Amino acid sequence: MDTKVEHTQQQEPPELAHITTNIIPLSTVLRKFSEFSYAELSHVIQTQPNNDAKKKKLLELIVYLRQEYMRLYVLTKWSKISAKDFTKLIDILAWLRQQTDYFTNLIWAVKSINQSLLSAKLPNPDLITALEVLNNGRPTLPTHNLLESRITTKKILETLEDLNVVISMKFALVENLPDEFKDYSIKDGRISIFTKDYKFELSAIDENSPFFIINFKFINFDHDQNNDQGINIGNNPQVSKHLIKICNEILRADNFQELHRVLTNYTNTVKLYLIHTKLNELKNIKHVYHADKFQIVVNYWINSFVFKNSYIEIGLSKKTEKICYKWYKQGEFQELFEDVDHVEDFLKEIYYKHSQKSLKKIENLTVNKSVLQINELTGIFYFKNSTPTLNNFLKKLNLDDFNNINENLRSLRRDLKFNEASTILNITGWIQNDLIKLNLNDFKKISQSMLNGLDVDESSNNIHNGKNWKFFTRNEWPSNWCLMLFIDNKIKPFIGNVRSIMGQSSLISFTELNIEFFEYKTSKNLINYVSKKIMIHLITQELKNSEYKVVEESNLIIVKTDTFIKIPDCSDVTYLSFKIDDPIKKTMLIKVKSRLNKEIKIEDFPIGSNGVFELSETIEFKSVSILKNFIDKLEKLSKIIELINFLKLEKLNLVNVKLDELTFKYGDHLCTLKDDLKIQLPPNNPHNVYAASIQKFNEYIRTSSQNKADSVGKIFKYLQDSSELVTKLRKFSEIAENQFLSNYDLSKLSYQVVFKNPTFFSILYYKKNSSNRIAIELTVEIKLNDQNEFIYLFKISGDDQSKFKQDFAITGSFSSKEFSDVLPLNDSLLVGSKGLNNTLDYFHNKFLSL
Amino acid sequence: MSEVENSIQETSNTIGHLIESFIELGILIHDFQGTETSKEALSIKLNQTIDDLKLLQSAPLQEVPIPLDVLQYIEDGRNPDVYTREFVEATRKSNQYLRGKMNSFKNLREVLGKKIINEFPELESIVNDINDRTNG
């Protein structure tokens, strides 16, 4: 754009340049396409040979043309609305692009101008030389020591000596000279004053003019401080100049006290700054330098959480005006230090003191074979002779409060001890059970029983903490039994019976074990020992209220026999011995040994000649009851001995004795008493006929009488006494049966013996031909008389009853010697045992002879 | 409506008619049986189409400019209005960019002019003249 033209003419801006490239008129498009269409159409119509091909080609062409005309239609629609504006837009955009290019050119042009003008800079005027020329008429040029001094050396020396005298007098007259300034020497026309930290030199022109300070220098500062950081600040010429200016101001008033104050302040400030720079180099500390407060706070052991808040405050002591160090250990003030020469060494000393003080507070530094230490550089705990487990634990130690450290170490030792024990246990086949969670009551139970054994205050707290308890079981053990380890300073092992109901565990019983160490060597013994303990516990549990004493060494339990099972005529004590065969077999051998004072032979129960008997059984660990079989046997033994004793009292003949069976003889007959006092009679025993009712009778007696022996006695008495009657009746019965089979005589009376119950019998006489039926019943009932002897009540009933009543009435018939011991009653007979046989025979023969 | 728009309208009508003719022509050819009537019908229709083509050929639309880009757009089956919109957008952006450039250079000119006047007061009139001439 030509700006000049535009500017001068002040007219409308020129038309935009019209763009024509890539733009064609719509008419051209339309014309060309219509020509194309026409040509194609005529070509297809004319050239195609056959009809079908022509049709197809034509259709394809028409479809194609139609599509293209659709596009043309769109184009015309568009051109109607936008074409005019669009060319305008194209022009504008082209113009804008052109302008942008101009700007780009402009930028390049400015840049090249900038570069080309670099050399067009004017130098600064040399004002200093100009001033020299103005003053001296010529510039001062370097002399290179070629000009000679106008003053002779001699003159100089003289003047200096004079000056020495003058200033020594003048200095001697100074009032209120601070003590620190009294170490001085006069030489070369100046007074050199030495103090502890610095030296400076004074001089004066003559006796009337004030002193002025020439030189100031620190002494006794560390040499290694002049490093690259410009630590040589004390003797920095710039600073010294400023200081000297201030000091000269003070000296104008001859105020040496003030001078001393300023110099000391300055020294202290520099010292503090030097400490600050020194601290900058040190690692493991963080310090803040408060220049305004004249204080540095050094936080050391910054990475230690345990000893956080440990710092040293460095500041100025108001009393001595010296730099002092205040040590704060974990926020508490500890000690004040002064006259510290070397900060680094001082820090080391503090580290040492701090770590020693902290370690002293720890009750016991050793964990197993490792010793807890504090890294004096970083304040972080570490273990000497460490193990990976300990290293893991260090994280916790280093992140917990220091007050908890004793507790933490205790728990560490506990964990380690437990780990050691549990590793051994796991390897040797113990199974840890984490599901068991005892409740508080159970812990109380245990702690009460332990109160004697342990430190009360310490352990009683820990004992209620479930974390201190671990539980182990073994496969071969009875379920619910486990080894319980209480881990405190020591490991206290228990065995306990823990029952778990609905996720709640409850301790049913427990016993403390006497084991101190868990080692691989003793682990097998441990299993035996613990198994034994459990066995003892299980056995004693079954002994219940019995009095017993456990002799562990010889695997023996001595039981007072009476309190266990009452066995008549037995020694006072019974020995119960047990032996674990092999833990792998999971069985144990139990023996019960005792002695009978009496000589008794029992067929299936061996008893030694001296009365000693022994029972033994191999029992699985897991069996529900250990002593059941023994108790059963012993009870049987007790019963049988009781019976034997009784039977011997009754003077019965013992034929055979077994534990659950006893055969004896009464009269000529055998009777066997089975277990539970069941009576068994051999077939040839007359009582066998109604054995069932005798058994019932027996049971009745037993339930009605309290004493077993008594009841047995009653039945024996019955059997013995009724033997005569029953034998007789049995004989009748046998005869009747034989007759019935062999000799069938209708004319005679037949009879049948009926055993109604043990005390009531009847003989039924009848005729078989029913037309002239005669039936008589003779009943015999057993009764007891005053002397508890058997008497028999005879009764007759039936058709011809009246006939026989006479027999009862006629005393004559029964009063003879034959029928002694017979007492006729109104309608019955009472017969004693002596007359029984005859009376029965009499009636029997009489009826049969009818 | 201007003359040009009228003729565009007419042309687009012609094209519309032509499109319909092509449809009919297609149907006629598709159903062409070779009978006399169908031949006659086909020839009438073809002639009509050719008349339309003739009309198109002579359409007075030399004044209507069509950018080739738009043609390409329609060739690709896209909406030319989209192209229009994008073009307007591009122009607007270009304008803004240029305006920014102008303003910043105006500032540069003023700052530079002031500095030059400060350093070289004798050049003040020249600087002012440049400023006046370039204040568009």
UniProtKB/TrEMBL annotation, chain A:
<protein>
    <recommendedName>
        <fullName>Mediator of RNA polymerase II transcription subunit 14</fullName>
    </recommendedName>
</protein>
<dbReference type="GO" id="GO:0016592">
    <property type="term" value="C:mediator complex"/>
</dbReference>
<dbReference type="InterPro" id="IPR013947">
    <property type="entry name" value="Mediator_Med14"/>
</dbReference>
<keyword id="KW-0539">Nucleus</keyword>
<comment type="similarity">
    <text>Belongs to the Mediator complex subunit 14 family.</text>
</comment>
<dbReference type="InterPro" id="IPR055122">
    <property type="entry name" value="Med14_N"/>
</dbReference>
<keyword id="KW-0805">Transcription regulation</keyword>
<dbReference type="GO" id="GO:0070847">
    <property type="term" value="C:core mediator complex"/>
</dbReference>
<comment type="function">
    <text>Component of the Mediator complex, a coactivator involved in the regulated transcription of nearly all RNA polymerase II-dependent genes. Mediator functions as a bridge to convey information from gene-specific regulatory proteins to the basal RNA polymerase II transcription machinery. Mediator is recruited to promoters by direct interactions with regulatory proteins and serves as a scaffold for the assembly of a functional preinitiation complex with RNA polymerase II and the general transcription factors.</text>
</comment>
<keyword id="KW-0010">Activator</keyword>
<dbReference type="Pfam" id="PF08638">
    <property type="entry name" value="Med14"/>
</dbReference>
<feature type="domain" description="Mediator complex subunit MED14 N-terminal">
    <location>
        <begin position="24"/>
        <end position="202"/>
    </location>
</feature>
<dbReference type="GO" id="GO:0006357">
    <property type="term" value="P:regulation of transcription by RNA polymerase II"/>
</dbReference>
<keyword id="KW-0804">Transcription</keyword>
<comment type="subunit">
    <text>Component of the Mediator complex.</text>
</comment>
<dbReference type="GO" id="GO:0003712">
    <property type="term" value="F:transcription coregulator activity"/>
</dbReference>
TrEMBL record, chain B:
<dbReference type="GO" id="GO:0006357">
    <property type="term" value="P:regulation of transcription by RNA polymerase II"/>
</dbReference>
<keyword id="KW-0804">Transcription</keyword>
<protein>
    <recommendedName>
        <fullName>Mediator of RNA polymerase II transcription subunit 10</fullName>
    </recommendedName>
</protein>
<keyword id="KW-0010">Activator</keyword>
<dbReference type="GO" id="GO:0003712">
    <property type="term" value="F:transcription coregulator activity"/>
</dbReference>
<comment type="similarity">
    <text>Belongs to the Mediator complex subunit 10 family.</text>
</comment>
<dbReference type="GO" id="GO:0016592">
    <property type="term" value="C:mediator complex"/>
</dbReference>
<keyword id="KW-0805">Transcription regulation</keyword>
<dbReference type="InterPro" id="IPR019145">
    <property type="entry name" value="Mediator_Med10"/>
</dbReference>
<comment type="subunit">
    <text>Component of the Mediator complex.</text>
</comment>
<dbReference type="Pfam" id="PF09748">
    <property type="entry name" value="Med10"/>
</dbReference>
<keyword id="KW-0539">Nucleus</keyword>
<comment type="function">
    <text>Component of the Mediator complex, a coactivator involved in the regulated transcription of nearly all RNA polymerase II-dependent genes. Mediator functions as a bridge to convey information from gene-specific regulatory proteins to the basal RNA polymerase II transcription machinery. Mediator is recruited to promoters by direct interactions with regulatory proteins and serves as a scaffold for the assembly of a functional preinitiation complex with RNA polymerase II and the general transcription factors.</text>
</comment>
